[in-house]
Amino acid sequence: MLKWLEWAKQIQAISQTGLAYGKDIYDIERFEMLRDLSVEIMQTYTEAGEEKIRELFASETGYATPKVDVRGVVLNEDGAMLMVRELADGAWSLPGGWADIGLSPKEIAVKEVREESGYEVEAVRLLAVLDKKFHEHPPSPHHVYKIFILCRLTGGAAQIGLETTQVGFFAEGALPPLSLERNTERQIQAMFELARGERSDVLLD
Fold this sequence. Notes:
Radius of gyration: 19 Å
Structural class: alpha/beta
Strand content: 25-35%
Number of helices: 5
Order of helices and strands: HHHEEEEHEEEHE
Low-confidence stretches: none
Strand order of the largest sheet: 4-1-6-5-8
Distance between the termini: 15 Å
């Protein structure tokens, strides 16, 4: 991970937690200064403007915790993997997204697969819990845990969603251009192996 990004995230987390629990007005002022510093670091090393950085990176309140991304891993009868083409960058990913309050990881996986691909699935078992910082993703302002859940096809048909433009199944050796913000080639390879039962362990960073 880029050191400046790691420092900015840590400073932002300290300031957010301090603002959530701080009582002394002078401490609160110092934590606000720390938050401003984290925004300044991000602004210096990225092309995003201050307003966007504050909205995406420094607007949360309460105790600072990682964000959670849930992905559904679905194979068809031929062993090809379900993927969707993302509207955001035109590349492909496993169906999924940020975890929703009030839903379990299994419920989120089922919901995301249905909304992004049109297919109905049943969540079967956990395949992996990965920390985004250990993988070949582009720099991100958030600390992210990625949960991959094996799902079984039960019905439905290919249908694009609000955030997707195409749906398809891809063989292991014929992957489309991947949305690296969401999944990497190594992760997809590992999911093929886990889904086929070639590995019995749950991947855990």
